[in-house]
């Protein structure tokens, strides 16, 4: 069997490393400008994380070569590039047995669509699954046990990905038919992770951190339910599990962005220093637009949007959240 990973960033390379022994062939595709000389010649990436791939892993910028005979295709590019890559895939074509698994967490800015919806528009006949959960790349590379959810409208596709891509003692996958919930949990939590890093940098304490995660989860639930998600999914690996891990770890890029914002740094300087994509930055803009469209209250996400895109100070953000009109705590009837 052949695995193809589309995207040569930290997570894409980590997955190629993790799953190498599950496949006879492994290919990593990236745009020519994204493939370092070190990666092409030594099968190695030294920063921001060190990943050493096995010799059998092929590195290419030729998408046609990457897709040829691939059984599982992992889509691990930035959300802003998903549609463009899918258009290129459409020109080449997929066969009826190939499975396309999206691992990019976010919403398309202009359309506010989930990534699987974008893929479906460009590749309507593709076999699509999504994979999401608490999957910090550095811990995966350290061989620490990691669990995640794989969802598809066709549960047999999800089961096939589960069986092929699980790694004993390292990577355990659970199937889920709720594509909407799995995608939204993984996407919306990135905004809350920025809020968590923000509070941590300002030294606002664990009480507020716990409150931010809880109130942030309430926003994720409100929006996701309005879009048709199963509420139980949001308290699973791709929802609560991912939220806890991402909001608690400096290894999270979104947490790091929030931490830098809390120290008063500007977003352009932060992203230049980070040197990699933090999906929560753009997602904060998309989720606020989505909440407005759905007429849903999302104060934490709105606060992070302002922290990212306006000149409001960290102290003003905290004051704005803490002096909102008093209200009842959310109550959900899931019956």
Short description:
The chain is an alpha/beta fold and 335 residues long.
Q: Give the beta-strand count.
A: 10
Largest sheet: 8 strands, mixed
Helix-strand sequence: EHEHEEEHEHEHEHEHEHHHHHHHHH
DSSP summary: helix tally: 16
Reading side by side through the largest sheet, how are the strands ordered? 5-2-1-6-7-8-9-10
Low-confidence stretches: none
**Average of pLDDT:** 93
Q: What is the terminal separation in angstroms? A: 43 Å
Helix proportion: 40-55%
What proportion of the residues form beta strands (DSSP E)? 5-15%
**Rg value:** 19 Å
Which word captures the global form?
Answer: globular
Summing up helix and strand content along with how strands pair, one would put the structural category as alpha/beta
Summarize the structure in words:
The chain has 335 residues and is α/β, with parallel strands linked by helices. It is built from 16 helices and ten strands. It has helices spanning 10-19, 37-42, 63-67, 82-92, 115-122, 137-141, 155-165, 179-201, 205-226, 231-234, 237-248, 253-262, 267-274, 279-294, 299-309, 314-322; strands spanning 2-6, 25-29, 44-45, 51-52, 57-60, 72-75, 99-102, 127-132, 146-151, 171-176. The strands form two sheets. It has an eight-stranded mixed sheet, sandwiched between helices. It is globular, with a radius of gyration of 19 Å. The N and C termini lie far apart (43 Å). The mean pLDDT is 93.
What key phrases describe this protein's structure?
two-stranded antiparallel ribbon, eight-stranded mixed β-sheet, 335 residues, single chain, 16 helices, alpha/beta
